Amino acid sequence: MKKKHFDVIVIGGGLAGLTSAIHLAKSKLEVLLIEKNEYPKHKVCGEYVSNEVLPYLEFLGFNPFEFGAKQISNFELTTHNNKSIVANLPLGGFGMSRYEMDFQLYQLAIKNCVSVLQDSVVDVNFEADNFQVKQKRIKVFKLE
Ligand SMILES: Cc1cc2nc3c(=O)[nH]c(=O)nc-3n(C[C@H](O)[C@H](O)[C@H](O)COP(=O)(O)OP(=O)(O)OC[C@H]3O[C@@H](n4cnc5c(N)ncnc54)[C@H](O)[C@@H]3O)c2cc1C
């Protein structure tokens, strides 16, 4: 890791961490993202994302349809004895594997100059106006 100074340290590179990191980096902040797992990684998830977030993803520079996302506009519930109910989803959403979505957001974070460290955070301390973030692999980052 070459950079020593960071304005923000984001702990955890799931959807919240990755989108925050990209957003902050787009605002010209030096961001360090610490994620304990290696990308790409699997995540248990229903993998339905509401279309409500599309304008925000577009602002971040992420188009899920470039990476295989499929539009979903109907909901169907079936029972074990083959009965079903179907409803339209007025707003709709898209289906996309979290393996792919998190990985593509990670790539976008790198493109936006986010520094990504694969490590597990074990402790965060706030003392004398400073944050200290401790990882499993010894190194300590300070936010002053
Ligand atoms: C079974 C299930 C189905 C779901 N289905 C849907 C769905 O269909 N649609 C939907 O919108 N939402 C769904 N969700 C919710 C969705 O998964 C979460 O809202 C979303 O993942 C939350 O994002 P996050 O970034 O907060 O957390 P996560 O995506 O869980 O990310 C947290 C990240 O932090 C990392 N981390 C944790 N501890 C540390 C540490 N100490 N140091 C470094 N890194 C660390 C983890 O490895 C992980 O990558 C579902 C959730 C579950 C459990």
UniProtKB/TrEMBL annotation:
InterPro entries with a match to the protein in the record: FAD-dep_OxRdtase, FAD/NAD-bd_sf, Geranylgeranyl_reductase
Molecular function, one GO term: hydrolase activity
A Pfam match: DAO
EC number: 3.8.1.1
Domain FAD dependent oxidoreductase: 7-40
Keyword field: Hydrolase
Protein name: Putative alkylhalidase-like protein
Segments passing through the bilayer: none
Source species, domain of life: Bacteria
Class of the enzyme per the UniProt entry, highest EC level: hydrolase
